[in-house]
């Protein structure tokens, strides 16, 4: 019986895809109670909520945007519809600080919040590891805890060297939506390009395409021929999982498609560039090694 | 022979034709005449099998048009309606050919010069003759023509009458609706002054 | 005349082959040794797995939309009719979307094709029914009712597709503007079958449509069972448009343009037009899709936009040269 099972495994080319969820990574944080300069904060900027949690400031967080969907934040109300800020919901929470970034919109909603005499601070966006420190510092300063922010930054930069993958695999970041008939592929500045570079991979999208996100024909994807596809978990579900993805024309003809070398990462985790990103890079490098076997 | 037996046709709640009976003999030309709105064209359409009368029956040689398939009916009677309009650019010859063999009737009605013209470019009178030619080309034992002379000059009118007389001699039952202003009906074998 | 018609058909078939050849050779990826690869089916993956099914799909849906438009115009005796005006296309999209919503089908599957055809048939029949509530079918009522019903059904498609969480459901923009981007060989089976059957029925009913152009009464006098002929044309229309829409979404305008272009060049005979509308539809879609995937390579453009850009000038040019092909009464 056991012999049969072993031979069965050996014969079927059992390639592995890999999934990275929120539970697979750990967030760096600083402990100890802090005194903050504000009491009620609404966060409308990607990745800021998790920085606040890392700064031990979850207690003053009263509202969040939809992209801040870590499990630990599930009890905090969402004040956006899709990615659109609903000013009424924000104002109803009676915050004394609203944190936004350059992508927060619509602008009219922000103006309404400002005209309700609520303090609005814009923090920088983060699209690479280098962007994390300035963002943490900006968030810490906004809530009156710059000391804690500096502590967290020190912890982040003392993480040491990042695990590197061997053989410079070609990796492509696909932004999937099952309802779309064109591929959106990450290019330079997608965020994924910096993750791929940090672990020693080659982002074929960033090397060959002009924009951060590019609509791509099926055969262009096939000719980029990535060894590994990096996708978001919900995006992968929307095309019917790994089985659905590797059947799509374009994907089916790539090395990644043929070997099922697909890595999906939790949507809120992949491009958040914050306290979890170092842990994510370690997991990502491990996953690339596994799917490349 | 066409037998009309006690028919009543109601239009817009009015009895346009009431309890009407008539026999139209084979091998002759019968003209139905009368003022506008008296129901001449309606009667023709009923004979052609377009719709059943509200009461009574119409038979062509013992056959009930309304019980006969469109295909079989097209072997029994042919119809040229009053204002045939053409939307697609078929040639005159093509249109006549949809009735039957075109060459003889084109010659008899003097349509040679029009044969390759598109029907969409014809005058009212020309279009009317093409539609008459198409009906005659079907070579049916009954031929039904609604106001065939409305837009014809004397020469063309004469040509049509000559052809109809020839057909009647060959045994065809020809039924023609003509406006009451048609004065000379000498070419008709029977005139029905309807519903006066 | 008959010889000329035959050679014109042969010429257009040749043109379609040339277009297919060009479409296969052009694309965002350069294929080394194109001719050798073309001689060995299956050799080059990009050529045989991605480009080939896509080009074949373009040929099939081009023919389907072209002849669907011809059937719509012939059955309604109306120069403005086409599948996306009579509600046929949005009915097909709704049929397919509903099947997907209930998990009965995926885009491009045979089940989706069947429900697309049923949706197309129901919607078209509804348009005709509503347009002839007050006695005779009027051209005006047909177009107004058709546009209104299309808008309603498209809205329902939009709402329904927003509800769908199933994988591979496709967005409203797919249903409204069409795409051949993700076509696989599997997707071709259903649409090839509906198109072949649809073309067969269209060929059969074509002589009746010639006579329907004289009006229902004259067609009846010439021996045509008007109701049956119109139903056959609607079934052909629904098979053609329903199969195509459920596979590649709604590619508008081609259903209007292809039969009119064919009529301008080859005259009104429906038998000839079945062949020529199919060939011209195929030609336009093959060229449009080739442009859609190559002019902005590696980006993909919308096929619907290119089809309109390609078809409209030809149609306008032909109308300005020769304006007596269809006389509106």
Automatic annotation (TrEMBL), chain A:
Signal peptide: none
Annotated Fe/B12 periplasmic-binding domain residues: 40-292
SUPFAM superfamilies: Helical backbone' metal receptor (SSF53807)
Descriptive protein name: Unannotated protein
Organism whose genome encodes this protein: freshwater metagenome
PANTHER family the UniProt entry points to: HEMIN-BINDING PERIPLASMIC PROTEIN HMUT (PTHR30535:SF4), VITAMIN B12-BINDING PROTEIN (PTHR30535)
Annotated Pfam families: Peripla_BP_2
Lineage: unclassified sequences, metagenomes, ecological metagenomes
TrEMBL record, chain B:
Coiled-coil features, chain-numbered ranges: none
PROSITE patterns per UniProt: ABC_TRANSPORTER_1, ABC_TRANSPORTER_2
Keyword Nucleotide-binding among record annotations: yes
Nucleotide-binding listed as a keyword: yes
Keyword entries, A-Z: ATP-binding, Nucleotide-binding, Transport
Annotated InterPro entries: AAA+_ATPase, ABC_transporter-like_ATP-bd, ABC_transporter-like_CS, Metal_Ion_Import_ABC, P-loop_NTPase
Residues covered by the ABC transporter domain: 2-196
Protein name: Unannotated protein
Organism field: freshwater metagenome
From TrEMBL, chain C:
Transferase keyword on record: no
Primary residence: membrane
UniProt subcellular location: Cell membrane
Record-annotated membrane-spanning stretches: 7-26, 46-72, 84-104, 110-128, 140-164, 184-203, 231-258, 270-291, 303-321
InterPro entries per the UniProt record, alphabetical: ABC_BtuC-like (IPR037294), ABC_transptr_permease_BtuC (IPR000522)
GO annotation, cellular component aspect: plasma membrane
Family matches, as CDD domains: TM_ABC_iron-siderophores_like
Pfam families registered for this protein in UniProt: FecCD
Keywords of this entry: Cell membrane, Membrane, Transmembrane, Transmembrane helix, Transport
Membrane topology qualifier: Multi-pass membrane protein
GO MF entries: transmembrane transporter activity
Family designation: Belongs to the binding-protein-dependent transport system permease family. FecCD subfamily.
PANTHER family from the UniProt entry: ABC TRANSPORTER PERMEASE PROTEIN MJ0876-RELATED (PTHR30472:SF25), FERRIC ENTEROBACTIN TRANSPORT SYSTEM PERMEASE PROTEIN (PTHR30472)
Protein name: Unannotated protein
Origin species: freshwater metagenome
């Amino acid at each position: 019986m056991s012999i049969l099972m072993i031979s069965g495994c050996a014969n079927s080319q059992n390639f592995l895809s890999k999934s990275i969820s929120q539970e697979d990574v750990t967030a760096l944080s600083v402990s100890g109670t802090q005194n903050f300069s504000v009491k009620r904060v609404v966060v409308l900027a990607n990745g800021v909520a998790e920085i606040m949690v890392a700064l031990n400031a979850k207690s003053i967080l009263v509202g969040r945007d939809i992209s801040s969907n870590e499990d630990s934040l599930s009890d905090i109300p969402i004040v956006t519809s899709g990615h659109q800020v609903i000013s009424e919901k924000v104002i109803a929470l009676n915050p004394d600080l609203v944190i936004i970034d350059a992508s927060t919109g619509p602008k009219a909603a922000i103006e309404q919040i400002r005209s309700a005499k609520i303090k609005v601070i814009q923090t920088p966006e983060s699209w690479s590891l280098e962007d994390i420190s300035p963002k943490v510092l900006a968030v810490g300063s906004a809530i009156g805890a710059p000391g804690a922010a500096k502590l967290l930054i020190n912890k982040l930069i003392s993480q040491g060297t990042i695990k590197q993958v061997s053989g410079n695999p070609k990796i492509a970041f696909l932004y999937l939506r099952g309802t779309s008939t064109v591929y959106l592929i990450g290019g330079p500045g997608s965020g994924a390009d910096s993750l791929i570079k940090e672990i020693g991979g080659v982002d074929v999208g960033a090397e060959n395409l002009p924009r951060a996100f590019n609509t791509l024909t099926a055969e262009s994807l096939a000719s980029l021929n990535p060894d590994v596809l990096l996708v978001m978990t919900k995006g992968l579900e929307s095309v019917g999982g790994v089985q659905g993805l590797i059947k799509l024309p374009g994907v089916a003809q790539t090395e990644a498609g043929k070997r099922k070398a697909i890595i999906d990462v939790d949507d809120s985790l992949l491009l958040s560039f914050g306290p979890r990103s170092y842990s994510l890079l370690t997991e990502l490098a491990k996953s690339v090694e596994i799917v490349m076997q | 022979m066409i037998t009309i037996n006690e028919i009543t046709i109601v239009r817009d709640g009015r009895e346009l034709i009431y309890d009407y009976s008539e026999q139209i003999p084979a091998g002759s030309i019968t003209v139905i005449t009368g003022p506008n709105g008296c129901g001449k064209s309606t009667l023709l359409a009923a004979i052609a099998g377009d719709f059943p009368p509200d009461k009574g029956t119409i038979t062509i040689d013992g056959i009930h048009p309304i019980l006969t398939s469109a295909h079989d009916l097209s072997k029994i009677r042919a119809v040229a309606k009053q204002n045939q309009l053409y939307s697609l650019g078929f040639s005159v010859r093509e249109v006549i050919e949809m009735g039957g063999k075109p060459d003889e009737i084109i010659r008899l009605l003097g349509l040679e010069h029009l044969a390759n013209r598109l029907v969409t470019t014809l005058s009212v009178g020309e279009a009317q003759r093409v539609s008459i030619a198409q009906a005659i080309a079907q070579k049916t034992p009954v031929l039904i023509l609604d106001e065939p002379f409305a837009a014809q000059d004397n020469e063309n009118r004469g040509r049509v009458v000559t052809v109809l007389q020839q057909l009647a001699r060959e045994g065809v039952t020809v039924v023609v609706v003509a406006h009451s202003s048609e004065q000379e009906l000498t070419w008709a074998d029977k005139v029905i002054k309807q519903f006066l | 005349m008959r010889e000329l018609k035959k050679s014109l058909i042969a010429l257009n078939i040749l043109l379609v082959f040339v277009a297919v050849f060009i479409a296969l050779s052009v694309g965002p990826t350069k294929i080394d040794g194109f001719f050798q690869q073309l001689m060995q089916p299956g050799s080059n993956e990009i050529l045989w797995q991605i480009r080939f099914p896509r080009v074949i799909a373009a040929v099939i849906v081009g023919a389907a939309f072209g002849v669907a438009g011809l059937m719509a115009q012939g059955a309604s005796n109306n120069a403005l009719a086409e599948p996306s005006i009579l509600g046929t296309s949005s009915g097909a999209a709704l049929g397919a979307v509903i099947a997907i919503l209930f998990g009965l089908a995926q885009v491009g599957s045979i089940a989706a094709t069947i429900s697309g055809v049923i949706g197309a048939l129901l919607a078209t029949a509804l348009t005709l029914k509503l347009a002839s509530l007050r006695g005779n079918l009027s051209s005006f009522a047909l177009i107004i009712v058709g546009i209104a019903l299309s808008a309603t059904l498209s809205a329902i498609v939009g709402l329904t597709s927003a509800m769908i969480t199933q994988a591979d459901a496709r967005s409203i923009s797919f249903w409204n503007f069409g795409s051949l981007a993700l076509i696989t060989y599997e997707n071709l089976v259903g649409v090839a079958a509906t198109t072949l059957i649809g073309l067969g029925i269209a060929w059969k009913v074509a002589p009746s449509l010639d006579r329907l152009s004289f009006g229902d009464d004259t067609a009846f006098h010439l021996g045509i069972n008007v109701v049956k002929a119109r139903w056959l044309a609607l079934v052909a229309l629904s098979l053609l448009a329903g199969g195509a829409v459920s596979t590649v979404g709604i590619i508008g305008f081609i259903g209007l343009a292809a039969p009119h272009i064919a009529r301008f060049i080859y005259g009104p005979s429906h038998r000839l037009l079945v062949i020529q509308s199919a060939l011209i539809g195929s030609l336009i879609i093959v060229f449009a899709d080739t442009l859609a995937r190559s002019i902005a390579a590696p980006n993909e453009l919308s096929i619907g936009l290119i089809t309109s850009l390609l078809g409209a000038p030809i149609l306008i040019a032909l109308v300005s040269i020769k304006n007596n092909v269809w006389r509106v009464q």
